[in-house]
Structures are given as structure tokens and as C-alpha cells.
Amino acid sequence: MKQLSEMSEREYFACVGQRPGMFVGRTSFHALTAFLTGYDQHAIRHGAPGLAGWHEWLVARRGKDCNHSWSGQVLHIALPGGWDNMWELSAEDEQHAINTLFQLLDEFAANREALKEASTDQVD
Questions:
Q1: For the residues of 60-122, what is the DSSP string, one character each?
Q2: CA atoms within 13 A on the CB side of 97
Q3: Other C-beta atoms within 10 Å of 74: how many?
Q4: Average pLDDT over the chain, rounded to whole?
Q5: What is the DSSP letter of 123?
Q6: N or C: which end of the chain has fewer CB within 10 A?
Q7: Rounded distance, CA 18 to CA 49, Å?
Q8: Contacts for 65-68 with beta carbons within 8 Å, 24 or more apart?
Q9: pLDDT on residue 117
């Protein structure tokens, strides 16, 4: 297995998604969104893109916006029928939201890699 520091963002997100408890302790949708927000803030402070464009990508993916942050957008995609209390999801909804979060992160990272590769090809 690669060292975390040697992984692409996509590989890193997949690693976190495979063993989320290793990164956040008790696995929950909200603990993972807090972890990813911290990841994003650290990346920005150190000149990396972090999750830049993630919220906009989710809005485009969903096809509409609302007043929720990116985590709410993920919940709208994962649970299109809505939820009673976003802070107290059923165990089934929680697991589905977590799975959806990492599926969407993989799509977002793959899209960003493809765009980066295409722009690099144009320069060469």
C-alpha cells in the first residue's frame, strides 16, 4: 500500500472511504464531513486546491441549489426523499449518505484529474 503522502487525492479519498473509522474514530456522516472540511482548509492554507469547486460540482450534479453547504447537497443527492433531522439520521440513511459521499468524491476527483490531464495535453 502506498504511503498517504504519495497518494493522489482520488486515492486518498478512496482510502478514507474504505476505512473511515481509522480517520475519524466513530464513523458518522457528520464526522466525515468535518474531517473533509479540515482537509480542505489545510490544503487551502498550504497552496493546494483542496475541495475547490466541490460545492459547485455538487449543485451541477444535483441540478439545483439550495441554502445548504456541500454536506447538505450530498444529503440531498443521497436521500432525495428528504430526512426528518439531518443530525439524527437512521443507521441505514447514515450508511447510504456515507457511501454516496465517497462515490461523489471519487467522481469529483476523477473529473478534476481528467480536466488537469486535458489542460496538460493542450500545453504539450
A1: HHHT---S--HHHHHHHHH-TT--S-TTS--HHHHHHHHHHHHHHHHHHHHHHHHHHHHHHHH
A2: 28
A3: 27
A4: 91
A5: H
A6: C
A7: 23
A8: none
A9: 79
Q: Would you say residue 31 has pLDDT above 70?
A: yes
**Residue 82 region by backbone torsions, left for phi larger than 0, else alpha for psi between -120 and 50, else beta:** left
Non-local CB neighbours of 49 within 8 Å, separated by 6+ positions: 43, 112
Counting other chains too, the contacts that 87-90 makes at CB distance below 8 Å and 24 or more residues apart are 87/30, 89/29
What tens digit of pLDDT does each residue of 65-114 get?
A: 988 899 999 999 999 988 888 888 999 999 999 999 999 999 999 999 88
Phi/psi for 50 (5° steps) reads: 55, -130
**Mind giving me the DSSP string for 16-49?**
HHHSHHHHHSS--HHHHHHHHHHHHHHHHHTT--
